Amino acid sequence: MSGEEKMRAKKEQAKGKAQEAVGRTVGNERLTAKGRAEQAKGDARQAKEKIKDTMKD
Questions:
Q1: pLDDT (tens digit per residue) in 5-56
Q2: CA gap 30, 16 in Å, rounded
Q3: C-beta pairs of 10-15 under 8 Å, 24+ apart in sequence
Q4: What angle in degrees, to the nearest 10, is found between the helix axes of 29-56 and 3-26?
Q5: How far from 25 is each of 6, 15, 20, 35, 40, CA to CA, in Å?
Q6: Which spans in 27-56 are helix H?
Q7: Residue 17 class from Cβ within 10 Å (0-12 exposed, 13-18 middle, 19+ buried)?
Q8: How far from 20 is each of 42, 49, 50, CA to CA, in Å?
Q9: Are 39 and 13 in contact (CB under 8 A)?
């Protein structure tokens, strides 16, 4: 996994977790959903990079 893409995936996951937590705390469903979507985007990026690494070997 390239370092830059790996970092981007982790950043998206962390940002999503934070947004989801804030959304739950203040009772904002839209923010909670946005946080979940951001996490899913980070998960997808991470999975894509892992597949690319596997194909190289």
A1: 889 999 999 999 999 999 999 999 999 999 999 999 999 999 999 998 888 7
A2: 12
A3: 10/42, 10/46, 11/42, 12/38, 12/39, 12/41, 12/42, 12/45, 13/38, 13/39, 13/42, 13/43, 13/46, 14/42, 15/42
A4: 160
A5: 29, 15, 9, 13, 20
A6: 29-56
A7: middle
A8: 14, 24, 25
A9: yes
Residue found under tokens 């194909």: 55
Q: Is 47 helix (H, G, I), strand (E, B) or coil?
A: helix
Tokens of 2: 């390239």
Tokens of 36: 């979940």
